């Protein structure tokens, strides 16, 4: 296993894995659609005062006033360190290389650009 990750790898992991899909399907954080907005249970404060920004691919908790990228979420929810969290996300991409993430994202009603 590599110990270091290139900034390009990290950029791709933060941006190419839809953060709402990660929350719902991979990390299995409780989530729901309320008022047409995807909301998830904040792993820090356990409230649903949250949203996901598809443009930046960041999850935000309005109560904690904290933004989570995909790596932050894995660290927070699974208790992994940075390196293990990056590896977890890399495995997700490598498991289904022929299945575009865009297709998966359609299932949650958000087309990928
Ligand atoms: Zn919170």
Write a short abstract of this structure.
This protein is of the alpha+beta class. The protein is 42% helix and 17% strand. The chain has a three-stranded antiparallel β-sheet. The protein has a two-stranded antiparallel sheet with strand order 1-2.
Residue windows where pLDDT falls under 50 for at least 5 positions: none
Number of strands: 5
CATH class: Alpha Beta
Q: β content, as a range?
A: 15-25%
Rounded mean pLDDT is 87
**Overall 3D form:** globular
Give me the CATH fold name.
DNA Primase, Chain A
The N- to C-terminal Cα distance equals 32 Å
CATH homologous superfamily (4th level) name: Zinc finger, CHC2-typedomain
Order of helices and strands: HHEEEEEHHH
Helix content: 40-55%
Ligand kinds: zinc ion
Number of helices: 5
Main β-sheet, spatial strand arrangement: 3-4-5
Largest sheet: 3 strands, antiparallel
Helix vs. strand class:
alpha+beta
Radius of gyration: 14 Å
Per CATH, which architecture?
A: Alpha-Beta Complex
The tally of domains stands at 1
Description:
The protein is an alpha+beta fold and 113 residues long. It has five helices and five strands, in the order ααβββββααα. β4 (58-61) and β5 (66-68) form a beta hairpin. The longest helix is centred in the last third of the chain and has 14 residues, at 82-95. The protein is globular. The model has no long low-confidence stretch (mean pLDDT 87). The structure holds zinc ion.
């Amino acid at each position: 296993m590599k110990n270091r990750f290139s900034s390009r790898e990290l950029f791709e992991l933060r941006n190419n894995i839809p953060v709402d899909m990660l929350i719902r399907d991979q990390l299995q954080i409780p989530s729901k659609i309320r008022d047409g907005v995807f909301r998830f249970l904040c792993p820090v404060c356990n409230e649903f005062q949250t949203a996901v920004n598809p443009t930046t691919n960041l999850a935000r908790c309005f109560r904690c006033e904290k933004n989570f990228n995909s790596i932050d979420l894995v660290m927070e929810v699974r208790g992994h360190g940075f390196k293990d969290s990056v590896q977890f996300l890399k495995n997700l991409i490598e498991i289904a290389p022929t299945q575009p993430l865009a297709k998966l994202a359609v299932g949650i009603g958000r087309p990928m650009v």
